[in-house]
Amino acid sequence: MAAAASSTDRPGALDITRRLAEICGPPFARLAGPADEVAGRPARWVAVPGGPRAAAEVLRLAARHDLTVVPRGAGTKIDWGAAPERVDIMLDTGRLAGIGHEPVGAASAEIGAGTPLRAVQATLERTGQRLALDAPSNGATLGGVLAAGEAGPLRHRHGTACDQLVSLRYLDADGELVGAGGGAEGLELARLLCGSQGALGVLVSATLRVHAVPASRIWVTRPVWTPLEVHDLVRTVLAARLDPAAVELDLPAGAGPRPRQGGRAESMARHPSMTGRTTTGPARAGTLVVLLEGGPADVAERADRMVSLLGPGAATASHSAPEWWRRYPFGPGDTALRLEVPISDLHAAVYALRDAAGAPVPVRGSAGLGVVHAALPGAMPAERVASILAAVRGVLLARQGRCVVVSAPEPVRRAVDLWGELAGLARLRAAKEHLDPHHRLAPGRLPGGL
User: Fold this and answer.
1) At 165, is the secondary structure helix, strand, or coil?
2) Whole-number CA gyration radius for the chain
């Protein structure tokens, strides 16, 4: 792809600005400002098309002028992943919003990609329905959740947003509107766009399954001190077959051993996985939480059984999630990690991360699925982050797990491989060459520099 000039002062730039204003309307096309960037890469123009046809025209304009296009929803995850090579036109999906008119009680709903997820839920709740989606990013749009492959606690029972797809519509790099779904092949294509960060197509709308709002919800909480204890408790929860909607873990950086050790705790301290680790120091409990949903009587009965199974310290908190529920353990500027590992090896992954970092680090996420997030301080030198990643990935490789850098400061992003080993890279490369052969959509956002 021919290189484009980096300045909007080049010949033709004013014409591009004028054409974007004609396509989107004068208030919805402009030169980019300081806040219009993707993972630190500044954009040149911002276009906010009023519908799929206008968005298609923006993509055709970009193709004629050899410009790159990067979609943006609410921007809650705009710094996730790799920085694109260039951001010529930032295509804001805010006006690709709305919920299709479906009969009350319909099994699915078509939703515009730019629709905030909380607006979708508020609309559906009026008819006693919901999307079984609870992505942690506050203000996220449905398109952003799909493009980032984001999921929250409810993934335990219902899967991710991509798992719940019935179909979707997207614009390809040439501005053609494509429908994907309605069969195994179509769904495979639809799910390929999930997590693609807009580098395979611009999402226009998605049709997802809807569910009845549960009549009752109860959170059962249990303090925990070590990853090994979490391992045993999660096994107990899953073996009980009490149909949890979510099994979430919060292990703060200060989590340590129990203040007083009984027989079980002493046995855990002697476990081989604890060899060489300190057993003294200030104790700060983490929390394991099991969410139960359903009819009031049924949920109450299952909650009582869950409290009994989890043992001392377990309690119920009806209608009240913990403060950290649906929140990531990392903040702006941190190096954010996602660990994915078989449930039986989650404790080994957390211990490996602690050992590599030299101290406990905050870990939070879906312990019942082996998918958790962790945070390293943003001020940590890039070389140190790289060494921690190498050590953790070495442990996870033998356990069919992986550690992905979700977001990081620019020095870290430059110094490390964000994804590590990726079995599907050849398939991803083939998809990129087929769907975007000229690499105009978010070039460089995907693994392998795609």
Assistant:
1) strand
2) 23
Which pTM value belongs to this model?
A: 0.89
Pairing of strands 69-72, 87-92: parallel
Residues with Cβ within 8 Å of 218's Cβ and at least 6 positions away in sequence, in order, are 291, 292, 299, 300, 303, 316, 317, 318, 319
- Contact assessment for residue 204 and residue 244, using Cβ atoms and an 8 Å cutoff: no
**Contact call for residues 150 and 134 (beta carbons, < 8 A):** no
Determine how many CB atoms are found less than 10 A away from the CB of residue 421.
11
Using CA of residue 304, residue 309, residue 312, residue 316, what is the dihedral sign?
Answer: negative
DSSP code, position 71: E
80-95 pLDDT per residue, tens:
999 999 999 999 999 9
| Contacts of range 320-327, beta carbons closer than 8 Å, 24 or more positions apart | 320/219, 321/219, 321/289, 321/291, 322/219, 322/221, 322/250, 322/287, 322/289, 324/250, 324/287, 324/364, 325/153, 325/219, 325/248, 325/289, 326/134, 326/135, 326/136, 326/152, 326/153, 327/136, 327/364
